[in-house]
Amino acid sequence: MESNLISRRTALALGGSLAAGVGLSSLKAAEAGKLIDVHHHYFAPAWMKRFEKEIAASNGARFASWTPQTALDEMDKTGCSTAIVTCGGPGTWNGNVEASRAASRDVNEFGAKMVADHRGRFGFFASVPLPDTEGSLKEIDYAMGTLKADGILIWSNYGTRFLGDPGFAPVLEELNRRKLVVYVHPMVISALNDADDPLKALGSNWENTTRTISSMLSSGILMKLPDVKFIFSHGAGLLPTVAVRLAGKSPEKLAALKRLYMDTAQTTTNPGAWAALNAFAEPSHIMFGSDYPYVADGLSLGLKEVKLNATDAAAIARGYAEKLIPRLRA
């Protein structure tokens, strides 16, 4: 493991940055259609209708023309064999319990149909109607038992409540009991993003991800979830640069942070973010993420921006995702 980490740092020192696609020094993994994208959004038509106003407010209306085929076309163009899809923003919670439960079901059944209709090309992380505890527990059971989802999607915050909030503990504990992969995406459109109040207008991708990790650390819940495989998007936000300070002198807290997985979305074009991610994360806990279609060229950008040796590149492109989700193995 350590030798892999050193090789990445050496590549950075020589001026490399991650060829996503992973640019792999050889690009063989991408050219052979081997790339697995763990950060790829989808837009179920029924969800688009139910959440029209919320989606428009989060700039999601521009994806109204999205279809599974448009996603496949982009994947084929960029050498991506499999995309693990997640619901686009703002997720499936809009304050109405019944509507949010129905929206989660719509999204999950559409995701499962994508997997069934296009064997080997898609996987999905199922949505749950948090902060509705009862509805979320029921949807986890249905998504994992009936739909055979690859894991669960949760958002960094619901309004001003981050995941360290005690109210989320029953759902997080169930995810731990089931030993699930849990994808955490920042909630950009939230009560924190108030353009009229500068003190609240702080809810960026990077900040809300970091805040939710910090809240889970401070509340102690993160240390109580050793069997959840959390993937945090966008290189886990600012975590790689502040992890040691967040953990303080607690080896237990630092160990909990080192257990986290992180994707490469929006890090490969930022040398500082990429260097910090590689310096902090366990080598096997970094996997490719494009943030497509929010980052329209995310699938192609990643393949050009960073230089890695062929072994590390192939591992980030596919190998580590296969290890985390064994069914992805060809």
Percent in strands: 5-15%
CATH architecture call: Alpha-Beta Barrel
Kindly name the structural category. Answer: alpha/beta
Number of helices: 15
What is the number of strand segments?
10
CATH homologous superfamily descriptor: Metal-dependent hydrolases
How many domains make up the 3D coordinates?
1
- The order of strands across the largest sheet is 1-2-3-4-7-8-9-10
Overall radius of gyration: 19 Å
The CA-CA distance between the termini, in Å, is 24 Å
* Broad CATH class: Alpha Beta
Mean pLDDT equals 86
Low-confidence stretches: 1-31, 198-202
Structural commentary:
There is one protein chain. With 330 residues, the protein is of the alpha/beta class. The chain contains 15 helices and ten strands. The chain has helices spanning 2-13, 28-31, 45-50, 52-57, 68-78, 97-117, 133-145, 169-177, 205-219, 233-236, 239-247, 251-258, 271-280, 298-301, 310-324, and strands spanning 35-42, 80-87, 122-127, 151-155, 157-158, 161-162, 181-185, 229-232, 261-263, 286-287. Strands 1-2-3-4-7-8-9-10 form an eight-stranded parallel sheet. A two-stranded antiparallel ribbon has the order 5-6. The radius of gyration is 19 Å and the shape is globular. The protein starts with a helix and ends in a 6-residue tail after the last helix. The model is unreliable at 1-31 and 198-202 (pLDDT under 50).
